Amino acid sequence: MKFSQLKLTTPYLNLDSLFFDEVEPSPLKKPFLISASKEAAKLLGLEGDIHLDEKLVDIVNGTHKLEGSKTFAMCYAGHQFGYFVPRLGDGRAINLGKVNGLNLQLKGAGQTLYSRQGDGRAVLRSSIREYLMSEAMHGLGIQTSRALALIGSDTDVARERWEKGAIVLRLSPTWVRFGTFEYFNAKGEHQKIQKLADYVIDESFPHLKNQEGMYLKLYEEIVKNTAKTIALWQSVGFNHGVMNTDNMSIDGRTIDYGPFAFLDDYESDYVCNHTDVEGRYSFKNQPGIAHWNLHQLAKALSSIVNYEAALEVLDESFGATYEEQYLSSMYKKMGLFEQDEKDIELFKWMLGALESATIDYTLFFRTLSHYDGDKKALLEIAVFQTPLKEWLEAYDERLQKESVSKQDRHQKMLAVNPKYILKNHILQEAINKANVSDFSMIEDLLTVALNPFAEHEELNYLSKSTPQRAKNIKLSCSS
Ligand code: AMP
Ligand code: MG
């Protein structure tokens, strides 16, 4: 089956019209294909090379409709930086329909009923970032929306300066957000909340259908999925930047990539989003914010789930799931496979040492994955060596208790500590080139994004360390 032969369904439109706005995309001028992800195409069961599908650009640009497609924007509310906004919705995303369990959505395809002051567009810069990061997050083994294709255009879009418009075709098993429930709760539309919960169970948690207490169980699964995703973000050093409840997927996956960043040097209170003056969404705050967001969700569900019972679930499940996932990921990154009662102490010491040593988080673990007792390579990448040296001495002692061979440990660590991470300075280089119509780096980045643990000798230039001036910078939210 070719991409243009897919037949879509639109189950979301069976909910009533308060849930969405049927709207046609507004095409971009002179659209052209920049990139398409063969890996994402596989999810749709496509055969052959998606790049060769002559209708691909027209479908992404909204000028050709797949069979069965009906285009619509979804309505939702959300807590933005802690403040409730009763109506947000897809202001620049237009859904095409669903196939193979995935909802296809165009981001940047023009205005909808929910655009408010916005132009409904997404600029090339932010579209490249979202396209690559969706695939990179998957490559790192973290639940995420995916990106099938990216198109550029000649349409001018006004931001701080004039930029060109682009569209990403995104895929997700669900586009329902915490904020979708908050929208109906704020309106007092309690029947709609139940309808939506039933829809979410059908779409994302079918094993819960018709079970006793299924709405509370639904909440529990959302809590656990979210805790797991955030734990994995912390383990890879990912800062999302805009953890508003409208950017929280109901199945816990990562969505809505904006001013995100990976840590360069390990700095726990790093804030990637320039507009986040108070640091609400700082790296270290992410688990606490996820908990806060889940609390808002418990309130929004309170007409169908006992609020106290939900809070109990939140308190019991969030911390436990988070901790289990986070620590097990971190111990693997450290190459510790046996259990020792002092591991937690060693682990906390390591984070403190990384912070005081001023050292690149990703590079530290990748270098540690080759560690054979010679500290030179690790100390060379630290600005202040003493804290790291002291920690490595304790680590040496701890390694004595491991039963796997050094070679095995290295191999296991290399499989969980990425060589390639989509750092801002590398993305920015790809964007600068794209701005002068050179898209070659995007293909290279896609290759390493999907397989970040492999060496890819020929693409070594993508793992070069961050220049001092670009370390842990803040990014503009405008996109
Ligand atoms: P975000 O924080 O990027 O997820 O966006 C928050 C809200 O603003 C969502 O409802 C978006 O649909 C909307 N939005 C963001 N940018 C635009 C735009 N350029 N035009 C219309 N709506 C937008
Ligand atoms: Mg959003």
Describe the structure.
The chain is an alpha+beta fold and about 475 residues long. It folds into 3 domains: about 5-170, no CATH class; about 180-330, no CATH class; about 340-405, no CATH class. Helix content is about 40%, strand content about 10%. The chain contains 15 helices and 13 strands. It has helices at about 40-45, 55-60, 125-140, 180-185, 190-205, 215-235, 285-300, 305-335, 345-355, 360-370, 375-380, 385-400, 405-415, 425-435, 440-450; strands at about 20, 30-35, 70-75, 80, 85, 95-100, 100-105, 120-125, 145-150, 155-160, 160-170, 240, 260. The strands form 4 sheets. Strands 2, 6, 7, 8, 9, 10 and 11 form a 7-stranded antiparallel β-sheet that branches. Strands 1-3 form a two-stranded antiparallel ribbon. Helix 4 (about 180-185) runs antiparallel to helix 5 (about 190-205), helix 4 (about 180-185) runs parallel beside helix 7 (about 285-300) and helix 6 (about 215-235) packs parallel to helix 8. The longest helix is centred in the C-terminal third of the chain and has 28 residues, at about 305-335. It starts with 19 loop residues before the first strand and ends in a 29-residue tail after the last helix. Magnesium ion binds next to loops.
